[in-house]
Amino acid sequence: MSLNSIFQYFVPKDKKFFPLFEQAGSNLIDMAKLLQESLYSTDPAKRTQNAKQIEDLEHKGDNITHQIHLELGKNFITPFDREDIHALASSLDDVADFIHGAANRIELYKVANPSQAMKEMTDLILEATEHVAKAIFELKDLKNIRNITDSCVRINSVENKADYIFDKAVAELFEYEKDAINLIKFKEVLSAMEDATDKCEDVANVLESILVKNA
Amino acid sequence: MSLNSIFQYFVPKDKKFFPLFEQAGSNLIDMAKLLQESLYSTDPAKRTQNAKQIEDLEHKGDNITHQIHLELGKNFITPFDREDIHALASSLDDVADFIHGAANRIELYKVANPSQAMKEMTDLILEATEHVAKAIFELKDLKNIRNITDSCVRINSVENKADYIFDKAVAELFEYEKDAINLIKFKEVLSAMEDATDKCEDVANVLESILVKNA
Amino acid sequence: MSLNSIFQYFVPKDKKFFPLFEQAGSNLIDMAKLLQESLYSTDPAKRTQNAKQIEDLEHKGDNITHQIHLELGKNFITPFDREDIHALASSLDDVADFIHGAANRIELYKVANPSQAMKEMTDLILEATEHVAKAIFELKDLKNIRNITDSCVRINSVENKADYIFDKAVAELFEYEKDAINLIKFKEVLSAMEDATDKCEDVANVLESILVKNA
């Protein structure tokens, strides 16, 4: 029963926020694909090239977030609560930051041989971003609430898997990696990856709160 | 002079939010007790068992937070500002995350002999969560503002002590611990513990801001 | 077209929030100057003394933030949106926390010889805080929007430079520093410094969002 629900019959079909959110969602998929490809590649030059592309997409994402904020400032009536638009934009931005952070650390730390756990984490990040983009796409008409809820459940499940892989990989590092500098490198890359899936879960939480208010 | 104050005479005694916040508060005490017990135990099996129970309670806390968000979506009138309900729920959730984080790191890193500083930190975390739970309990009728303020002052004082112990322990690690991997282990466990008391201070800040608006 | 814009002709010239924000801004400059001076000094006693002064100013900053929150609770009409006042106060507080964090780590870790990259980072932090303070000063009458926008652009540019220096310095640490404990020390000091410039960028983002709504 928010202000937006009261006004909902007068709100013209939003053509400002949804297209931007959809761009942000598909940008995340692009980033996640590049990261995955990079981790499975055995060519360091390829990896450097992908890291640069991921950086460009992260800037693209920043611009999308910025445009969402500009629209928020210009529009009194929004398709759902202002605070939720803000929270959704921020959480999508956070996902991009951590995908970029993972790629960047691999470059900076010159990680020559990504571990199996890292590769699996990029599979999960891609899976999570696909569900994020799907849920955002469905958001524009709330007819398919079930689909959005489904995507949120799947994001949570992916995040749980990522948690498990991260914990296991870190435990193994502390058990078997005797070179402290290598341990730091691997732990920090894995940590950025796990944060990326955490932030996908934040997106799911925001989406669920939007559903509760507007359904 | 918030919307809620204007409406306050019409607001029926809240039976939705306060019970959930009280559950969240007492859940934190349970977690802090398990962590303290775990650190003082010399039996690694006991420690593993407590870590599992802490993980279960962390999930329980997640569910409480989730229910608070659902209630926020369903209720137009809330006992205090929506943004404060949201902030209070989030900060309580953060405390749980870091207590769990500390227990989890001890397990993952196989910390065999917790340091004296770690033990003292768990005393402080328990003390802080007890004040948090007490303040939340008093929140439901604002007659005892003095008690809430007292608890907040005590939380701040506990956090200052935790800061001091953390800083001293980390300085000693850098001075005496020559094994870098051990240094990382101890520093990160202490850091999660210190973050837990920081987040208790965030709870106190939210409580104070609720008092200012509604008193 | 916020509530505040509607009321703007009735809002008496704010004498509560702007002076506090200005104090917060100039406090950041003082902290940044002490940090810079400390890093360029070759006298460890001087460095310890500056670290103590930075800690005092961080407490001073906490008090200013606290007063802003108290004013928020007491005043129904604010010079710009409540959420933006809250966000501006928080982001200024975060800058102070990380400047203090950098100084504190140098002390705790007994960093005897600050690196060239650290020195350059303190130049950038000072530059960023000067632009932050300038933009806040202009905020009180929105005649000089151009000046505020200029400062925000400069803050973003400083943050980009800090990113570049940080990335380069960390890559070099992983390439040349064979002592893992030294690597941790240097990396964490640099990281707190980089976070300080990041948080200045957050301030710029809040300022831009205030401009968009009120201009």
TrEMBL record, chains A, B, C:
SUPFAM superfamilies membership: PhoU-like
InterPro entries: PhoU-like_sf, Put_Phosphate_transp_reg, UPF0111_domain
A Pfam match: PhoU_div
Superkingdom to which the source organism belongs: Bacteria
Family: Belongs to the UPF0111 family.
Official protein name in the record: DUF47 domain-containing protein
